[in-house]
Amino acid sequence: MSVYDCVPPGYIVAAEVYRSTRTLVLRAQRADTGAAVVLKTTAEAMPPAALMQRYDHEWNLLSSLAAQAGECSSIICAHELTRVGHRPVLIVEDFGGQALRHLVASYTHLPLTERLVIAIGILDALEVIHAHNILHKDVNPSNIVVNRTTGQVKLIDFGIAVRSRRFAVRHTATDMF
């Protein structure tokens, strides 16, 4: 399979970021504006219905979250969900980051201030989604993206995230101080 088989018209692939048996992630640019984006799609040309629904679910959740919380700097911004053949393609912002899993090996060698910025960014993202009754269910170093130059930290991959009315951020007396 060529990576170009799953690229929507109007996008130019810059690099393959990640590939598994189910997922393909590409860095790309919009041909008309040059804007950097990330294309997330299925590795399979004919994905099962359940996998297609995951992409719809992720798009709906990210769109809803953006409408409720505004475009939050700690949550990946989804631009569009489209299809190429039978494949869903989720188009999200590319802010120049890399997965925290790539930094883990050298994490202890990062300056303390940078480690704290990353930790606070993760907590900010969790605060936002929990305030909107969303449980991510897959927070791990592969789903946290860090741009070391700008200090931006974003939570990605909401494919198995859920909304739960039972889950709500509870404020305590210590929140007042």
UniProtKB/TrEMBL annotation:
InterPro entries: Kinase-like_dom_sf (IPR011009), MAPK (IPR050117), Prot_kinase_dom (IPR000719). Residues 11-177 form the Protein kinase domain. GO terms for molecular function: ATP binding; protein kinase activity. It comes from the Bacteria. Keywords: ATP-binding, Kinase, Nucleotide-binding, Transferase. The keyword Chaperone does not apply. It holds the Pfam family Pkinase. PANTHER family: MITOGEN-ACTIVATED PROTEIN KINASE. This is Protein kinase domain protein.
